[in-house]
Amino acid sequence: MANYEKMYDLFDLALVMQESSEGISLEDIAQKYNVSRRTAERMRNALLKYFPQMEEVETGERTKRWRISQRSLNSFISFSAEELAVFKTAIDSLKQSNLKEKADTLSRVEIKLRNLLKPEQKNKIEVDADELMKAEGLVLRPGPRIELNKEILNTLRQAILSCHHIKMLYQAKGSAKAHVYKLVPYGFLYGQRDHYLVAKHNDGFDNGKAHNFSLQHIKNVELLPDVFDSSEFDLQKYAEESFGAFHEEPFEVEWLFDDEVAEEAKNFVFHPKQKLIENPDGTLTVKFKAGGKMEMDWFLYTWGNHVKVIKPKSPAQKD
For labelling alongside 70, which of 14, 24, 91, 222 has CA 20 to 30 A away? Predict the structure, then answer.
């Protein structure tokens, strides 16, 4: 085993052996990790050092198979207070971003991990994790948060994963009447103040362009039998044309941060394809191309007079 240093593969193999009721053979190991039979033997032998309780499964076949019991694996896995505190931080962050459903899912994972702790470790680690959270001062931001319909979200996810068209009842903000749309759903965009379904009308409306539909304004969703090709749309590219989750025709953006906040601004990723220029006078120029002027205005407001918009020009700047 001296020549086999891929500990990640060993840990993964331990999980695979625990999940398999019929056991894992040397041939299975060699094929899964693309290694020789000799290396597969070394991997099995290495796990035997950590899990002497590894058992050979009787299958009635000539091929030998091994598995690791759930109890043996649980006794090997341990977590620190810092690691559990990170889970709590992530859960709180998701709640603050109005992603309650994802926060609930991650919370269930955290509970499962806590249940893997040894009884003698559990109390101390949980108390230490709670103390770490208090020390970091991580609390939920006050203010309104969006409650999204879980059933609607599940139906949308099912449609996206199975590439099915949908029929959606949608009532836009400020509209007194809800409308029925038949759409091709591509995915979700999560913004600071709202979250969106990215979809296009299946009848070719607006030249087949994708649009953002606020999740909180979706009243009902049904799956349709029609299917679509998921490769026809690049959600990542679409998102890069936006600032935040507000999408419009991309334009050239150039901001100038003064010398008082330049160092701070350098730590921000304003856009995935941004270009940062440190000027001789200590100021910082940020350039990128995206749409979403309203979102940009909301964001720039937080920087006060320390930032100047060079592009796009305001009506007062235009000749």
Answer: 91
The 8-class DSSP code of residue 53 comes to T
- Strand, coil or helix: 290: strand
Angle between helices 7-19 and 26-33 (to 10 degrees): 130
Locate 247 and state its tokens: 């999408």
**Average pLDDT, stretch 176-186?**
93
Tokens of 304: 């006060």
What element of type H or E holds 276? strand 275-278
Are the C-beta atoms of residues 194 and 180 closer than 8 Å to each other?
A: no
CA 123, CA 129: separation in Å to the nearest integer?
10
Interior CA angle at 51 toward 49 and 52, to 5°? Answer: 75
Residue of higher predicted confidence among 117 and 109 = 109
Exposure string of 5-38, with b = 16+ CB inside 10 Å and e = fewer, is eeeebbeebbebbbeeeebbbbebbbeebebeee
What integer pLDDT is reported at residue 219 of this predicted model?
93
DSSP annotation string for 204-239: -GGGG--EEEEGGGEEEEEEEEEE--GGG--HHHHH
The mean pLDDT of 154-175, rounded to a whole number, is 89
CA 237 to chain centre: 16
Average pLDDT, stretch 172-184? 90
Judged against a pLDDT cut of 80, whether residue 176 lies above it is answered with: yes
Which strand (E) or helix (H) includes residue 38? helix 37-50
> 214, 204, 100: which is closest to 168 by C-alpha?
214
Instruction: Judge whether 262 and 305 are in contact, CB under 8 Å.
Output: no
Distances (CA, A) of 297 to 143, 222, 263, 291: 21, 36, 21, 12
Spatial separation of the C-alpha atoms in residues 248 and 292, rounded to whole Å = 6
- The whole-number pLDDT of residue 19 equals 67
The two structure tokens encoding residue 290:
């995206």
Predicted pLDDT at 306: 93
Q: What are phi and psi of 244, to 5 degrees?
A: 70, -135
Look up the pTM and report it.
0.49
Determine the 3-state secondary structure of 194 from DSSP. Answer: coil
